Amino acid sequence: MIEIERVRALVASGSYYFSSHGDQERQNDNLTVAEVEECLLAGRIIEQYADSGRGESCLVAGFTSAGKPVHVVCGMRSIWLVIITVYIPRPPKFKSVYERGT
Predict the structure, then answer these.
(1) pTM (two decimals)
(2) Does domain 4-100 have CATH number 3.30.2310?
(3) Domain boundaries defined on the chain
(4) pLDDT in tens, 21-79
(5) Who contacts 13 (Cβ-Cβ below 8 Å, separation ≥6)?
(6) Mutual orientation of helices 4-12 and 33-42 as an angle, nearest 10°?
(7) What's the per-residue H, E or C state across the chain?
């Protein structure tokens, strides 16, 4: 299980990187690297994934300083946090930033 304290520590120390998919999705939603960092530093883990073929990962939900909702799926690769994907949660998939839709 990935702990939010570990995520925050790795982001704060710069010990993370974006996968090519994660960076492309970030750009698709017009999110800056700083906004992704804000989400990871102040957000909370709302889902844990044991192993989806790319190792253990989790979904962090949070907001930017401007109040924009952001979801970040991240996992551990050795001593690094890898940002697997980033997106703005929207209906119908999500009712709110913290709750999946039907």
Answers:
(1) 0.93
(2) yes
(3) 4-100
(4) 999 999 999 999 999 999 999 999 999 998 767 689 999 999 999 999 999 999 999 99
(5) none
(6) 140
(7) CCCHHHHHHHHHCCCEEECHHHHHHHHHCCCCHHHHHHHHHHCEEEEEECCCCCCCEEEEEEECCCCCEEEEEEEEECCEEEEEEEECCCCCCEEECCEECC
